[in-house]
Amino acid sequence: MRLKKLPDGEKPRERLLKYGKENVSNEELIEIILKSGTKKIGIKDISYNILSSVNNINEFKDFSVQSLSKIDGMSTIKATEIIAAIELGRRVYNEDKYNELINLTSPSSIINYFHSLFMGKKQELFYVIYLDNQKKFLEKKLLFMGTVNYSLVHPREIFKEAYLLSASYIVCIHNHPSGDATPSMNDIEITKMLKQISDIHNIGFMDHIIIGKNNYYSFYEDNNILAG
């Protein structure tokens, strides 16, 4: 049955308004986001096709616009709507989590809060975490994407943000999509350079952490470059 043929009280939007967001199904939430089907396929069939493409709703976090648009009844526009809704939800809950941070004083505490930034990513992302003088979270900034190397990581961008935020400490964190967190020569050179500049500017360089698959490398823990 097409959505428009349902009684008004059984339509997804009306059910959400009447019973609350917790009491509508995943299928109905998707129907609300997409709004309508196509000339050939009704929205209920499209919603079913989307849910049938995964074993668990959590798998949607790894979907891309390209993979969603390949599902029968989907288009690039509809796939974009779904991805935007997923990303908005992720940001809402992550920002709540960040705002509750008291302090970040060890690699394990940093990874615990920020590892989700790198889940399922196929390219290197270079984040800088900015902390106040009590090592409380101020802000996170994605400053570079792609292969991290000496020429791409510009210290001026990292330290400009530190001054704008009145940050006292920084933590650099990036991923290795290969899964191996062992630092490359570029990683080591970047860390040396940033350590030297942070000393000049009197901004504490707490750590440079590399995220792999179920493993990580901390320059601080390894007493490498950042010692003292």
Please sum up the structure shown.
The chain has 228 residues and is α+β, with helices and mostly antiparallel strands.
Notes on the structure:
This protein has 228 residues and is an alpha+beta fold. The protein folds into two domains: 3-96, Orthogonal Bundle (DNA polymerase, domain 1), CATH 1.10.150; 102-218, 3-Layer(aba) Sandwich (Cytidine Deaminase, domain 2), CATH 3.40.140. 40% of the residues lie in helices and 15% in strands. The protein contains eight helices and five strands. The protein has helices at residues 12-19, 26-34, 43-52, 65-69, 76-99, 107-114, 155-165, 185-201; strands at 125-131, 137-145, 169-175, 204-211, 216-218. The chain has a five-stranded mixed β-sheet with strand order 2-1-3-4-5, covered by helices on one side. A hairpin with a 4-residue loop joins strand 4 and strand 5. Helix 2 (26-34) packs across helix 3 (43-52). The longest helix has 24 residues, at 76-99. The protein is elongated, with a radius of gyration of 22 Å. The termini are far apart.
Shape: elongated
> What helical percentage do the residues reach?
40-55%
- Output the structural class: alpha+beta
CATH class division of the largest domain = Alpha Beta
Q: What oligomeric state is this?
A: single chain
